[in-house]
Design goal:
Strand 3 and strand 4 form a beta hairpin. The protein has a four-stranded mixed sheet with strand order 1-4-3-2. Helix content is 38%, strand content 26%. The two termini are 22 Å apart. By secondary structure, it is α+β, with helices and mostly antiparallel strands. The protein has one domain: YaeB-like fold, CATH 3.30.2310.20.
Length: 97
């Protein structure tokens, strides 16, 4: 399994999304956190499984929530560059390295 690193802004996006769900429902917040954890584990297990787009960015779409985990692989590291809502500010993360 490869090492996972998060862009600082991806961590902030994840925290904000969990908080948004928590304010509406503790169960929804926990379900969101679990789905993100499962997505990260499956990315770590097989990072090439999801489609690659320009710049080597790959996307793992969550099933129950309107979010996508965007990442790239660098040797033995998976670098999560965004935990992006699918309907807000498309492509805002493109400038992240």
């Amino acid at each position: 399994m490869k090492h996972i690193e998060f862009h600082l802004e991806a961590v902030q996006e994840l925290i904000k999304a969990k908080e948004w769900y928590r304010l509406r429902s503790e169960m929804a917040s926990q379900a969101f956190a679990l789905e993100v954890d499962n997505a990260i584990r499956s990315i770590a297990d097989a990072p090439e499984r999801w489609p690659e787009s320009e710049g080597g960015i790959r996307r793992k779409v969550l099933q129950r929530f309107p979010y996508t985990v965007l990442y790239r692989t660098r040797s033995e590291t998976i670098y999560v560059i965004a935990v992006a809502h699918q309907r807000r500010r498309p492509g805002y993360w493109h400038t992240r390295k």
